[in-house]
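Researcher: We're teaching a course module on how sequence relates to structure. For the next exercise, students receive a sequence and then see the predicted structure as tokens, so they can try to spot secondary structure elements on their own. Here is the exercise chain.
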Amino acid sequence: MTGTGTPPPPGAGPDVGLAAERTALAWRRTAISAMVIAVLFLNHAAINGWRAFGTAPLAAAGTMIALALLGFFRSRNLHAGRHDIENGAIVMATVAVVVVAGIAAGLGFVYPGP
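Model: And here is the predicted structure for the students to work with:
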């Protein structure tokens, strides 16, 4: 489908342009969100001191920075026309989010807030 209401010409492949663009934008939003979360974890570590419990927020921040880089490069690949499916990127992003969610839950129990 070309989006104009007319059928594609015979022999034309699937129209992956808009789907790839939406996916690239989603990866870019993921990268931006991961950087914001990394800054929040670094802020938490700085406010509470760089003691032993500071390693958990630093690990979470490092994980989010890695996720941001993954999202940036995946978005860049999609914009360059490389539409191959990278299951490894999806698995790594999922693992990163689960690990950081666990760290955040643990920090919530240790430092319940005001």
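Model: If you want an answer key for the exercise: The helical segments are 17-47, 55-79, 87-110. The CA atoms of residues 20 and 78 lie 6 Å apart.
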